[in-house]
Design brief:
By secondary structure, the chain is an alpha/beta fold. Helix 2 links the parallel strand 1 and strand 2. Strands 1-2-3-4-5-6-7-8 form an eight-stranded parallel beta sheet. The protein has a three-stranded mixed beta sheet with strand order 9-11-10. It has 13 helices and eleven strands. Helix 1 runs parallel beside helix 2 and helix 8 runs parallel beside helix 9.
């Protein structure tokens, strides 16, 4: 195993490396990490069930503080429980990994609590999986402020743990103004209807979340049905995207950017069948507010009726016609 690790460190063209289900242990990983800079193209690293302990995980965190960004790091099934988990705080701030999976790593409450705080200042990570780790409210309590702090996080999986409404509700309430988290997995915890009600309230205003898993919890069916309806609305809403780079185009044009602003005025379908918000320039704030209100009401009604794909061009055209009648476009 050690010889294999030595040989691997000379392969600087590797982009994906799967060493799962091998008895590498922390000793082998430490050797690997010493030469991690040789893997200039490495983007995905799989180390599941390799008998790695916290000592090896700590070496990986330190190594990925300096090397290229890793898109996926999976370390499921390694026993990482250790009282020194909190010592990773400073290194985790610069942990250069986009997706981290520690499923079934025996974290427990103590390590999970420390791990949650270690993540709070990380601006890189987008996906976290800490499923199957015997985490209760005590361990999950440090995760509750994550929606307020991790503005790039898109997906979190805390399934098959022991989380109850006590900490879950606090986490859910903090999602109200979060614009990054899209998927949350609470599968097989100990949640009651209260968590479902809080999620329902959040989804009244949150248009980012598209998938929530409450299966194998004690949330009433009518609550989950309402949540699923709002999630479906959000999935349709997410199909509407802004035209990228338009503001920069305006800055580079002859138009004086100090006198004009970019505003959203409708929906438009491009030749490649992708959906965008059509954008125009307005100079008058009051006129624009009336126009925006009209467009928004039409767009929301369209989404609620599940017709956003079929009728989006018609709605945009009708809205723009009405705007032309009501507002003189500068």
């Amino acid at each position: 195993g050690m010889k294999y690790i030595h040989n691997l460190t000379n392969k600087n063209f590797i982009t994906s490396l799967n060493l799962s289900n091998n008895d590498i242990r922390s000793e082998g990983i430490i050797i690997f990490c010493k030469k991690i800079l040789n893997f200039k193209m490495l983007r995905r690293l799989y180390l599941e069930n390799c008998n790695i302990t916290f000592k090896g995980f700590s070496a990986i965190v330190e190594a990925f503080n300096h090397g290229n960004r890793i898109e996926i790091l999976k370390m499921d099934g390694n026993d990482l429980r250790d009282r020194n988990f909190g010592n990773l705080l400073e290194m985790m701030k610069r942990f250069n990994v986009t997706s981290l999976s520690l499923k079934g790593c025996n974290l427990g409450d103590s390590c999970a609590y420390s791990f949650g705080y270690c993540l709070l200042n990380n601006e890189i990570i987008k996906e976290i999986n800490v499923a199957l780790n015997n985490i209760s409210d005590k361990g999950f309590s440090s995760f509750t402020s994550i929606p307020d702090t991790l503005r790039n996080l898109e997906k979190i999986d805390v399934s098959q743990n022991l989380i109850t409404d006590e900490s879950a509700c606090e986490f859910i309430v903090n999602l109200k103004y979060n614009n990054s988290i899209k998927e949350i997995n609470f599968f097989d915890n100990q949640l009651q209807t209260r968590s479902g009600i809080e999620m329902m309230k959040v989804l009244d205003t949150n248009r980012t979340i598209v998938n929530v898993n409450f299966l194998l919890n004690s949330v009433k069916n009518e609550i989950t049905d309402n949540i699923n309806m709002k999630l479906k609305r959000n999935r349709e809403y997410q199909k509407v995207k802004f035209i990228p780079g338009l503001k920069q185009q305006i800055k580079n044009s002859l138009i004086d950017p100090k006198q004009y602003e970019v505003y959203n005025t409708g929906i438009k379908k491009s030749k490649n069948n992708r959906t965008y918000l059509e954008i125009t320039l307005k100079q008058d704030e009051d006129k624009y507010e009336r126009m925006k209100k009209f467009i928004k009401s039409n767009l929301e009604k369209c989404i609620e009726d599940n017709k956003v794909i079929e009728n989006e061009v018609d709605i945009a055209n009708n809205a723009m016609n009405k705007v032309d009648q009501e507002v003189e476009i500068e």
